[in-house]
Amino acid sequence: MTNIDNERDERDASTSQSSSITSPSRGESGETSLKAMTPPLWSHPDLVAGVLIIVASALLLTRTSSMPFMTALLPVTMLGALIVLAALMVLRALVGGKGNRKLAPRFPVFSDAKAFWCIILAISLYMAGVATIGFYTSTAIMLPVVAWLFGYRDLKRLLLADIIFTGGLAVVFVVLMGQELPAEFFVR
Amino acid sequence: MHAKMTSKMAAFLLSGLMVTPALADFPEKRIEIVVGYAAGGGTDVLARTIAPYLEEYLGNNASVVIKNMPGASGQIGVTEVAQAAPDGYTIGTYNLPGMMARTLDREAAFDADSFTYLANVVDDPNVIVTPKSSAIDTMDKLVDAAREGAVTVSMSSLGGDDHFFLMNVADVTGGEYTPVPFSGSAPARSALMGGHVTMGIVNISEVINFRDELNVLGIATQERSPLADDVPTFAEQGYELYNSALRGFVAPAGLPDEVEAALISAFQQTYDDPEFQDVMLRTGNPIELAVGEDFRRLNDEQLELAERVWEISPWK
Amino acid sequence: MYASLIDALPEVLSWMNLAAVVVGVIAGICVGALPGLSATMAISVLIPFTFGMDPLVALGMMAGIYNGAMYGGSIPAILLRIPGTPAAVATSFDGYPMAQQGKGGYALQVAVVSSAIGGVASALVLMLLAPPLAKVTLLFGPAEIFWVAVFGMSAIVFLLGGDILKGLISACFGIFVSLVGADTITGYDRYTFGHLELLDGINIVVLLVGLYALPPAIALLEEKKELDTSNAGKLNTVSIWKAIPGMLQYWKTWLRSSVIGVFIGILPGAGGSMAAFLSYNEAKRASRHPERWGEGEPEGVAAAETSNNADTASALIPALTLGIPGTAVAAVMLGGLLIHGLQPGPMLFRDNPDIVFGFMWQFLFAAILLIALGGSFATNSFAQVLRLPRPLLGAIIIALVFVGVYSINGRMFDVYLMLGFGFIGYFMDKLKFPLPPVVLGLILGGFAEQNLRLALRIGGGDVMALAASNTAKVIIVLTLFIILTPIISRLLRMRKARNA
């Protein structure tokens, strides 16, 4: 899940967001450097994913001890199968990851790691916003900000889309349906 | 020191000013009924049916809205009620014996003392059913079969009224019963109708639409039910078996007396309304009102029953 | 019974009730087409709103939404590879490649016509055969349902994709997720970590939206070539009525998929996606050129879309007669009946024939209306939506998944869960772990387990009791047949090749 290059990018991205995401040259140079150097074997995505699956499954397995036999049976079978399958995948990555790329091809995990972590950050902020200051307020802020940050710079249309979308949702949910989405801070 | 006193006094006076009129003409804002199930369930429909009557009898232009908080067989909703402010503006639906059983088999954030018991409205007695094709069509035949070898029993879940009733049946009749807990009464009833199990335990409201498909061996009440007066009680057949599922309304503990009285009186007036009685009968809901202390006593009885079963044979 | 069917018709034709169906179908197409929103969510939002309405108006809207959403889900599945509903997963297998080849417009037309045909077949079965089919449902006790689940799981074999190892990991993950929640048979909680919200298990919509709608939204924002929407806007504009004659060659697939969809619908609990997966596989097996499947074969779209609409009305057969819904959406819809005091059971047909039979007519009308309303107008307007600038579209999808998941149960917890699945789904997608096995695993894993254990309990622990009934034997033979035929035919072909 992590990759040396990307870790650096991540730190980079969190400090200087807006400038770094949108400069295409930096993203491209990152990619070419990835191609040029053969990355170390341990960073093979299959290997990392496999190890993570094994660790997670093992942790989950420890919780089956307090369950009755029949309740625990299928979870133990599934987690056991996951561990075995993930171990096979790790093995395959170790054997085939170096030379023979057909056996365990390396798929690129991030097309743009900085952008990815920025999106995760944006979604987390949005989530926190919905839970604390309310759905419509957060959406009205998130929509233009995210679209702007990720490259759509037509301010007039952006605001128009924002009003149509957020307003449309409000009309459908509040006016037509009387359905409650997380309440706004100013009406609580 | 002096300044502090004055400010305290002021605060006291102020709060007094604000609270007293609120008590005098409760309700002065909208009342929320928290329903622990999704819209369209039995409990939800009960709450929605009763809401306009409550608005009418509370007077004061009261507005009563339903808030569905489904999940964990009603536990999420009832926890919300237990933890709400005891001002009468949050009340909730309450199912027995389920809610009390949860305090035994799960970590619950509430217990019997967490609530002000307003009114129990629905009293849905248990019945024992067999498929129409089955040769077992009386209690005596069933008991004989159960004494010869284990009888499979479809029911809706563990730790609910069906389950406690089954424990009672096993106790009173002797014999061997294998509980088969389905996830809900409809699948339990269908498995029975398909002949996949020998008998089923459900509630009377769940069989009235299936009278041609099922034998109803008996009903667990003192007197026959107006919903199906041809079904004999178990007592008539010599088995002292009484049990039912209850649906009512509670508020958080510590409700001001005036508010409690206002709410209980609204429930009483609703229950006495013939129109309400008619709606409930038409939708197949057997009703019997128990308010305040009587409801609390019902709750304690159910808790005691659950504790007894839990002690003898914990279901988990 | 057929007399009451005719008697119910005039009431349905009143303009209020017709308008309800029309509004429902349009709303359903929108809900299905918008990534993140689902029929389950739309109907659960609608139900409390309909309390106090005339039952037929409420039910007409629901029938419209159900049918509309089942087709609407195919629009983003075809144009963006984001299935709008769980049942549209199989539609994306061939629909998305078609869109990439510039045949998106045709794919959508095949989808809408197939949906309508499946829906009409299903509605006719509901109208004409509900009581006898309810008896078929009763034949399926826990043992038989367990075998049906195993039968459905055999479809996983075909969904594993190129990398079997990763496919199996996906399937195991899906089955594991299905086990979260209270084990109803012992009462113990599994992997709920003290969260009451997890006791009832993980809702399929939460998982689906997380796995399928969030990663593409992230990809849209990343603005790389992963998600190609350039074809989305360029739909051909041949009129749907001109396109239909060319589609008649799919009649066999339509017939087969309708039968599969109807049959899966009357079985309690399996529903939608399983019907689509199974009929996709069956159509592929029957095809003369199975190698083209997955690469833009219109017949694949036809198979999946016919059957996911063919189980809509038939899923209501067990719901109306027995109270056990055939699909997740029908389960929510049952609430829509109950809220009007319509208790399921044989008495319902006697006490409220106007409503029950009127409801069936509405299903038929909704299915027919699909062609008119879902044809060029709806698809073209959604194509416009998908032509929005990518960063904007990405942000809109993110907001929509919040709405869609929050509204199901009205709680943030489901949103957090969905985001977690989205995170996992992003990496699964990038590392080429196939997603369909996760969906099928979640639908069938816990379902199979629970029924197996109920069956064992009924049989007193005797394993042979699982195959005691004739129904069970038939399904076992069918399952073996389906699993073994490809193997045997391959062996035969190898032998022929050697002899030649």
UniProtKB/TrEMBL annotation, chain A:
Residues 1-13 have a biased composition (Basic and acidic residues). Keywords: Membrane, Transmembrane, Transmembrane helix. Pfam families: TctB. Residues 1-35 are annotated as: Disordered. The chain crosses the membrane at residues 47-66, 72-95, 107-127, 158-178. InterPro entries: DUF1468. It comes from the Bacteria. Signal peptide: none annotated. Residues 14-25 have a biased composition (Low complexity). Residues 48-182 form the DUF1468 domain. This is Tripartite tricarboxylate transporter TctB family protein.
TrEMBL record, chain B:
Keywords: Signal. The keyword Signal applies. Residues 1-24 form the signal peptide. SUPFAM superfamilies: Periplasmic binding protein-like II (SSF53850). The keyword Signal applies. Belongs to the UPF0065 (bug) family. This is Tripartite tricarboxylate transporter substrate binding protein. It comes from Halomonas dongshanensis.
